[in-house]
């Protein structure tokens, strides 16, 4: 039995199963591309920020565009003058937004993993109802094609539902674990920066974008990063 024969044998219930299969595939591919640890929370960024703080060369605009973790750290640094607790609170708020973004589409994927076996079970019930309806008529021996069709629908829809549900459930659990691992990595590096700021002896100096860079011909953050230089330093009030 090829794919087309299976779709026909399964009846109309194969349509939602096929739709769930396509949606799950798209979600899995998108999350595999998005949930890359080196893109969200690259190793060493917290230590690099500490070194830049020591030299007074933290460019917040570069840090925000570096990675989601960079955006979290930049949010904390912008509130460093308000005190240690405010830095922690702002880091937590920014990290919550990043975690929410990482968990995007995981709920639909979990829903697909849960409902597709039920759709397959519904196909099994519908198929068996058709089989018993043929038997009850008393001429089941002469209607073997109808009997075979009902049994085929019962088996095909069940198999299709499990085929979609099993990989969906596996990837759902995998993505949940990956989100947890990336969250722990973000917490570790954010903790390094918070600890460093708590014991930083001098006045925090942050590099800001120069006003001339916003005009035509100005040098933006990308060029500054490529040249290895930092924008002019301005002390926070």
Rounded mean pLDDT score: 79
Largest sheet: 3 strands, mixed
Find the count of extended strands (DSSP E, 2+ residues): 3
Radius of gyration, in angstroms, nearest whole number? 28 Å
List the secondary-structure elements in sequence, H or E: HHHHEHHHHHEHE
How far apart the termini lie comes to 74 Å
Pfam family, one: MotA_ExbB
Protein name: MotA/TolQ/ExbB proton channel family protein
Domain MotA/TolQ/ExbB proton channel: 67-187
Biased composition (Basic and acidic residues): 209-230
Characterize the structure shown.
The structure is a single chain. The chain has ten helices and three strands; from the N terminus they run ααααβαααααβαβ. The chain is mainly alpha-helical and 237 residues long. A three-stranded mixed beta sheet has the order 1-2-3. α8 runs antiparallel to α9 (144-198). The radius of gyration is 28 Å and the shape is rod-shaped. The N and C termini lie far apart (74 Å). Mean pLDDT is 79; it is low at 210-237. Residues 209-230 have a biased composition (Basic and acidic residues). Keywords: Cell membrane, Membrane, Protein transport, Transmembrane, Transmembrane helix, Transport. Residues 67-187 form the MotA/TolQ/ExbB proton channel domain. Pfam families: MotA_ExbB.
């Amino acid at each position: 039995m090829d794919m087309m024969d299976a779709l026909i044998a399964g009846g109309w219930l194969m349509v939602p199963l096929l739709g769930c299969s396509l949606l799950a595939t798209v979600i899995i591919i998108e999350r595999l591309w998005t949930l890359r640890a080196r893109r969200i929370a690259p190793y060493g960024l917290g230590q690099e920020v500490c070194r830049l703080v020591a030299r007074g060369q933290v460019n917040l605009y570069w840090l925000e565009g570096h990675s989601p973790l960079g955006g979290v750290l930049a949010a904390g640094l912008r509130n460093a003058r308000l005190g240690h607790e405010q830095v922690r609170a702002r880091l937590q708020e920014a990290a919550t937004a990043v975690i929410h973004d990482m968990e995007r589409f995981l709920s639909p994927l979990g829903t697909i993993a849960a409902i597709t076996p039920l759709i397959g079970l519904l196909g099994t019930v519908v198929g068996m109802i058709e089989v018993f309806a043929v038997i009850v008529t008393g001429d089941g021996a002469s209607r073997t094609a109808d009997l075979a069709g009902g049994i085929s629908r019962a088996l095909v829809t069940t198999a299709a539902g499990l085929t979609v549900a099993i990989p969906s459930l596996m990837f759902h659990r995998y993505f949940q674990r990956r989100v947890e691992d990336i969250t722990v990595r973000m917490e570790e590096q954010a903790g390094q920066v918070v600890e460093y700021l708590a014991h930083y002896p001098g006045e925090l100096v942050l590099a800001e974008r120069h006003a001339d860079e916003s005009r035509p011909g100005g040098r933006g953050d990308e060029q500054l990063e490529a040249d290895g230089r930092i924008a002019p330093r301005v002390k926070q009030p």
